[in-house]
Design a protein that fits this description.
Strand content: 15-25%
Number of strands: 8
Number of helices: 4
CATH topology: Peroxisomal Thiolase, Chain A, domain 1
GO molecular function, one term: 3-oxoacyl-[acyl-carrier-protein] synthase activity
Protein name: Ketosynthase family 3 (KS3) domain-containing protein
Mean pLDDT: 94
Shape: globular
Keywords: Transferase
CATH architecture: 3-Layer(aba) Sandwich
Pfam family, one: Ketoacyl-synt_C
CATH superfamily: Thiolase/Chalcone synthase
Strand order of the largest sheet: 1-8-7-2-3-5
CATH class: Alpha Beta
Length: 152
């Protein structure tokens, strides 16, 4: 588990993704895991220009070269933003992904953004052999949380 507060702006993320980077690093440290052990990220993924670019940069910063093969999707594209419940519902989805090996897609993904060069799950459910996954939640006011689930 990781938790940070950057308090940069009420609705906009800090442009360099500092809080996002720190929360993912804190979760990895708390789980005693190397970034390469994560196979999937259920992104906060609001489909907004600011969030998606900052989150992509933060993932690339934390995961380095591993980010190129790390699967990423956001279920908000299917369920909308549930505000305070979003993190809980997204973590349930992440847990199910780890134990079923099925990754949900980011629906309505049309054109790749060069500023977000990650391996997105976009065309239906993908089946993978998954041992550990991360779920990101970045809230209003810069409140950030990150949870990791790992098989024993």
């Amino acid at each position: 588990y990781g938790n940070t507060a950057d308090a940069y702006h009420f609705t906009a993320p800090e442009p360099h993704g500092d809080g996002m980077i720190r929360v993912m690093q804190a979760a990895l440290k708390d789980a005693c895991m190397d970034p390469k052990e994560i196979g999937y990220i259920n992104a906060h993924g609001t489909s907004t220009v600011l969030n998606d670019k900052c989150e992509s940069k933060a993932i690339m910063n934390v995961f380095g070269d591993h980010a190129k093969i790390l699967k990423v999707s956001s279920i908000k594209s299917m369920i909308g933003h549930l505000m305070a419940a979003a993190g809980a519902v997204e973590f349930v989805s992440t847990v199910m992904s780890v134990f079923t090996g099925k990754l949900p897609p980011t629906i309505n993904y049309k054109e790749p953004d060069p500023d977000c060069p990650l391996d997105y799950v976009t065309n239906g459910v993908e089946s993978v052999d998954l041992n550990a996954a991360m779920s990101n939640s970045f809230g209003f006011g810069g409140g950030n949380a990150c949870l990791i689930i790992k098989k024993k």
